Amino acid sequence: MTVHSPAKAGEPEGRSAVAYQVDMRDVKFQLFEWLPTEKLLQTERFSQWAKGDLEMVLEEAYKLAAEVLAPTNKEGDRVGARFVDGKVVMPPSFRDAYQKLCEGGWISCINSPEFGGMGLPEVVGTAINEFFFGANISLSLTALLTRGAGYLIEKFGTDEMRQLFVEKMYTGQWGGTMCLTEPQAGSDVGASKTRAVKQENGRYLISGEKIFITSGDQDLTENIIHLVLARTPGAPAGTAGLSLFVVPKIRVNPDGSLGQPNDVQTAGIEHKLGLHGSPTCSLVFGPNNQCEGFLLGEELQGMKLMFHMMNPARIEVGLQGEALAAAAFQEAWQYAKVRLQGRHWTRLKDHEAPQVPIIEHPDVRRMLFTSYAYVQAMRALLMQTSYYIDMTRVTEGEEQERYQSYVEVLTPICKAWASDWG
After folding, report:
1. CA distance 58 to 63
2. Above 80 in pLDDT, residue 392?
3. What is the dihedral of CA 127, 39, 33, 3, to 10 degrees?
4. How many C-beta neighbours within 10 Å does residue 219 have?
5. How far is it, in rounded angstroms, from Cα 205 to Cα 231?
6. What residues pair up with 88 in beta bridges, in sequence order?
7. If we measure between CA atoms, which residue out of 203, 207, 76, 227 comes closest to residue 149?
8. Could you tell me the domains of the chain?
9. pLDDT > 80? residue 85
10. Which residue windows are coiled coil (predicted)?
11. pTM: predicted TM-score of the whole model, two decimal places
12. In contact, 64 and 104? CB cutoff 8 Å
């Protein structure tokens, strides 16, 4: 195993001074030796990329994760997101780090170049996002939801919506969220009561409360675009009666400039055991009956459309577990090489024998290698699933259906197994 880090000369042997490290050798092995990622580069969709380009992108992403994102992680946990005067205030160091993500185009590295994305293969994006999640998961969650919401608008929105929202979301200028849960509607999404009433101008007045909304409010972006499940008058009960709406925090003028606030109120943030830098918000839409939303797709198709965002999010939940496990393993591995305790097992009865690093104790080695075996397996599962997603985009007919069936089977496994073990 080769630990990859931008450590400088003069650091203690066996342990780098940087806050985050990754086994880049295993990442590249899985991408280019185990998986036929280069096969994707022969297709029209990814023909602008060469293997050398992808390796350079990986190195730059890792450098950003280790040198910019990871140093902000401690402050994110200790200071956390704060609710002040009805607004969420993010940890100060997050602002510069988020700006660096935006400047490098990392927010939407796998999304369409037409709207500001890099257009990387999904499998490469999975490797990149492992670095970002492992370095600072709280900050990276904002980017995750933004690109997911932007993708849904790109895929199902009108030309007007695409022009108004997508590029500014893909570049990170605006944020994005997914608003499903309500106080009485958690796993039972069909119990949602948020209302959407159509107006003469074709837009809808949105009213209701949503809870547990990741990055529901933050001060890293100048606007936040919410995707909200709501029920139109006369809609059937259950999930079949839900429609999906694009609801900006601040109204957007026809020329793309910002208008007036859109009557979206942040009621508070949750107090959690961890991820204190990620604001989990309660939002009230239309407390003054002035909250406008755009219908995305057709009425009564809300859950069907939302799954196009939820399924990638499921994979990324698993990726978060794997990324944290990989980062924790690297910390433990480096610490075990410098922590002196006990005598070598071959000299247990020799009281004059020097103390040895704990990595020389067989049971410590067993625990470390067991942990790393799980990390490699989780990484392999996530990358393979991502590769299959790429294949659904570059194939047709029965071959495409076969890869899609793989994705459908593996997606819930990615979420459940990798998040449990990670």
Report:
1. 9
2. yes
3. -30
4. 14
5. 11
6. 83
7. 227
8. 24-169 (1.10.540.10), 175-302 (2.40.110.20), 305-421 (1.20.140.10)
9. yes
10. none
11. 0.91
12. yes
